[in-house]
Amino acid sequence: MSGKKINPAPYLFLAPAVLIFGLFVAVPVLGTFLLAFTDWSWPQPMRWCGLANFTALLRDDFIFHRALANNFIYLFLSMIFEISTALALALLLARRFPGRGAFRILFFTPMVLPLVLVGFLFRFILRADGGLFNAALASLGLPGEVDWLVDRRFALAAISMVSGWIYCGFFLVLIQAGLGRIPRELLEAARLETDSAWKRFVHVTLPLLREVLVVCVLLCATGAFKAFDLFYVLGGRSGGPGHITEIVPTWLVQQAFELKHYGYGCAMALALTIIVGAIAGVYVKIAMGRKKEAPHLEF
Amino acid sequence: MAFLSLRGLRKTFGKFVAIDHLDLEVEKGEFVVLVGPSGCGKSTILRLIAGLEDPSGGALNLDGRDLSGISPKDRDVAMVFQSYALYPHMTVFKNIAFGLRMRGVPRAAAKKRVAEVAQTLGLEGLLERYPAQLSGGQRQRVALGRAIIREPKLFLLDEPLSNLDAELRVSMRAELLHLHARLGVTTVYVTHDQVEAMTLGDRLVVLNAGKVEQTGTPEEIYRAPRTAFVARFLGNPPINLFPAALRSGNGAPALRFGAAEVELPPEILPSGWLRGGPSLTILAGLRPEALQLVAPWPAAEPPASSRGPLAALRGTVELIEKLGKEKVLFVRCGELTLQALAPPEAAVAKGGSVELRFSPSAFHLFDPQSGESLRRQARA
């Protein structure tokens, strides 16, 4: 046996962080994983039920299916309202004009507001009776009296728009940073070849923003599957009439914390994690695979 | 009218005047080099010609066509940027073909043209690579390829060799000259490197603070700089510039600096200078190669261009820079420190005494206030 003495100092320094991480992250994650395979419903005793929760989730829980579909719709809409809008605004703000700095701050401001507050604000704006949005439409001579948050046709889009209003500024900052990384000469070289701003955008700017846009889409996707506050406040506790604004996290909270079906709720959380992880994994593999083909990190 | 004509060109950025009423004419097929220190406005001139900046005043004409209001794409100019500006997400093929594709040239025709250009520049085996997979010299060639593929009327090259190592820069200089000789396209080349400027240009335009200091062939400008700035800027090691008094010595005009007094030949005297008139303070310049080391190294024969008897200065060697093919000596002569060139075998040591001889006609004389040359032939 070697008589080499182990220096305890590094372990002691790491111990608080490991302890906090273990207590608040590792233990709950492990607990969720294990509970997902039980039928624990308060105050019933906990019993091991194998994959029964997952079978029920995938085969019988139509509200979960609806919520998952709503999550995907929300993801699609938020990509339009958040990333596409942010991209358009970033391109506009890349031009020099008076008040450009003020606009940047203005677009980012919603990010610092509490989501619940924003939710209540937009409930007031979007409500059918006396809502500001309907009043604005009426003043333009357009038909009003739509209950934007309850109407099956508009409810998800309305919440996605509110979400876009909040997060657009965040993606704007990311995309602006990406635009700032593009050497000016590349855009100028393109100006010598074509007058079309659209062609320059498609052939030069957009491909050079790809890495930033990959990150934006990834953040948007994970955010879309983690959304809760806004849907809870705007869509209502029960996901709106007929669960039209139900998403997996709101259904999960209802199952786990209101109906106290902890085992089932944990199974839903685990399923959601697997789905999001799989989507993110495939997406990153595709996006980064392309990067390998075009090693263009060096400017 | 010249092929490219810049008349009274002016560019301001806020209150900063980058280009100040600049006049320049470039003939068809000429290789003109704009040279000057950083911030003198040389790249701005290229950007104005390319249409990447709008002039604040003046006129630009290319091949008889007024360029004002014409978009960069329609000016029929191609530009090579200092950073090469290659699109990192495109292969070499796509980079070179980009201009043609944007102009709607059919794929087959573009492919054929790219193959021709690649052959001209020795890029045949690299067409499927990305810029990040190329060496500096190869990237530079791709940038040139992108410029020549459209067969533009005018090439604008903005310090294209500055990112290359010293060895590659020398070989690329030769390649650029060959390319220009073969294509014969009018070229405006920007550099801050005087060696590059002297070796490449049919004609140099020396710029300082947005103004043209002097235009001429490299030999003309080196031999007869019109201002102290030009004299200082061109030449390595730099010209020795020092204040001196021009006065009537023993009846003949003489230049006095420190303890030395050198009689001047009449042909280099300022036209306004009067024999017997008051002493005139001037800025005197002597190129290092005009100073011959005669002691302790055996005296060399005076160069063939020297006229009249040689003047001599004695001093102490303060510093020796060994460049391989020659030595640069920093010789202290009284209050002056002069740089002189010596052959590598010269047996000189730091602290040793030496004698420097020179022809008085080698003096460059400048007005200390305006910096303008006082020599008659320089001003003519």
Characterize the structure shown.
The complex is a heterodimer of chains A (299) and B (380). Chain A is mostly helical and 299 residues long. Chain A has a domain at 69-245: MetI-like (MetI-like fold), CATH 1.10.3720.10. Helices cover 70% and strands 0% of the residues of chain A. Chain A has 13 helices and no strands. Chain A has helices spanning 9-35, 52-59, 62-93, 100-108, 115-126, 132-139, 155-181, 184-191, 197-208, 210-226, 229-234, 248-258, 262-293. In chain A, helix 12 packs antiparallel against helix 13 (262-293). The longest helix of chain B has 18 residues, at 166-183. With 380 residues, chain B is α+β, with helices and mostly antiparallel strands. Helices cover 23% and strands 33% of the residues of chain B. Chain B is built from nine helices and 20 strands. Chain B has helices at residues 42-50, 92-102, 107-121, 136-148, 166-183, 194-200, 218-223, 228-233, 376-379, and strands at 4-13, 16-26, 31-35, 57-62, 65-66, 77-80, 154-158, 186-191, 203-208, 211-216, 240-248, 253-257, 260-263, 280-286, 292-295, 311-322, 327-333, 336-342, 353-358, 364-366. The radius of gyration of chain B is 25 Å and the shape is elongated. In chain B, strand 7, helix 5 (166-183) and strand 8 form a beta-alpha-beta unit. Chain B has a six-stranded mixed sheet with strand order 6-7-8-3-9-10, with helices on both faces. Chain B has a five-stranded antiparallel sheet with strand order 13-12-11-14-20. The chains are: A mainly alpha (299), B alpha+beta (380). At the A-B interface, helix 8 and helix 9 of A face strand 6 and helix 2 of B.
